[in-house]
């Protein structure tokens, strides 16, 4: 199969960008509205726009991952998801009276969901489809060796401090340590011990799969550009929707006593 044919089959019409663009227009025109039905509609449209671009981010990252192979493919997917998560959390924390523990609680939830829920669900689906599964235990060990110390330092260690939290200086030190540890992990993953992250039972049959074609170099640039565009779209919608979301949450908190009274009656 020619490179041109391979490039074509990995491309899709970017109609999903319509939803975040529409959400941005609506937020710009009516984002300051305090009317509850309008606020609900705006938040629903923003949610659709965010999910639409988020799925497109994952799709383009997946194509690039097939192009680059391991370990760079996993790195692109991971960084794309991390950028989405950080942008969503940061937008919420930067608006209104966000709880200072939002980031910590969110990180804890992500670790629990990924290491427990997603891994278990993936094993279940993989066992159902392939019966026998092969796993790269060497790569898994490296991920866990990096994950556990970071999780303990960031989530557990503050509870042992007198104020149950980091001071500004301690927080900066922990941030530097965490960045250094992740930098060392990336160095191990991409340079010094790259072979540990390569799946030895890699299935090469993806080359004949129309859903997993390896794009050409030109098509890779195309996917990279659209990946960045959709990331920017998610961040923009999230940032502009922070105020309407806060208004919606405040309205729900104000309505909860009324709903409880109605339920008791």
From TrEMBL:
NCBIfam families: PRK10599.1
Cellular compartments annotated: Membrane
Protein name from the UniProt record: Calcium/sodium:proton antiporter
UniProt GO molecular function: potassium:proton antiporter activity; sodium:proton antiporter activity
GO CC, alphabetical: plasma membrane
Keyword Membrane (UniProt): yes
Membrane topology reported for the UniProt record: Multi-pass membrane protein
InterPro entries (alphabetical): Alkaline_pH_Ca-Antiporter, NaCa_Exmemb
Residues that span the membrane, as ranges: 15-32, 38-60, 72-94, 106-131, 143-164, 170-188
Primary location: membrane
Entry superkingdom: Bacteria
Record has Disulfide bond as a keyword: no
Key words of the record: Membrane, Transmembrane, Transmembrane helix
Lineage: Bacteria, Pseudomonadati, Pseudomonadota, Gammaproteobacteria, Enterobacterales
Stretch forming the signal peptide: none
Pfam families in alphabetical order: Na_Ca_ex (PF01699)
Ranges where the Sodium/calcium exchanger membrane region domain occurs: 40-190
């Amino acid at each position: 199969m020619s490179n041109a044919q391979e490039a074509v089959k990995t491309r899709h019409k970017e109609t999903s960008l319509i939803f975040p663009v529409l959400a941005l227009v609506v937020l710009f025109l009516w984002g300051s509205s305090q009317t509850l039905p309008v606020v609900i509609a705006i938040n629903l449209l923003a949610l659709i726009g965010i999910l639409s671009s988020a799925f497109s981010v994952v799709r383009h990252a997946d194509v690039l991952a097939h192009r680059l192979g391991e370990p760079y493919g996993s790195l692109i997917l991971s960084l794309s998801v991390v950028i989405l998560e950080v942008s969503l959390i940061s937008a919420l924390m930067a608006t209104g009276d966000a709880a200072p523990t939002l980031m910590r609680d969110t990180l804890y939830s992500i670790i629990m969901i990924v290491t427990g829920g997603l891994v278990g669900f993936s094993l279940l689906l993989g066992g159902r489809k392939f019966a026998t599964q092969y796993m790269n235990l060497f790569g898994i060990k490296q991920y866990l060796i990096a994950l556990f110390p970071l999780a303990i330092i960031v989530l557990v260690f503050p509870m042992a401090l007198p104020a149950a939290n980091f001071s500004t200086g301690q927080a900066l030190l922990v941030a530097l340590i965490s960045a250094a540890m992740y930098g060392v992990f990336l160095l191990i993953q991409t340079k010094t011990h790259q072979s540990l992250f390569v799946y030895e039972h890699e299935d090469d049959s993806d080359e004949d799969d129309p859903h997993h074609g390896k794009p050409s170099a030109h098509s890779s640039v195309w996917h990279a550009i659209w990946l960045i565009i959709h990331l920017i779209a998610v961040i923009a919608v999230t940032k502009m929707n922070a105020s309407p979301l806060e208004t919606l949450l405040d309205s729900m908190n104000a309505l909860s006593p009324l709903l409880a009274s109605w339920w008791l009656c």
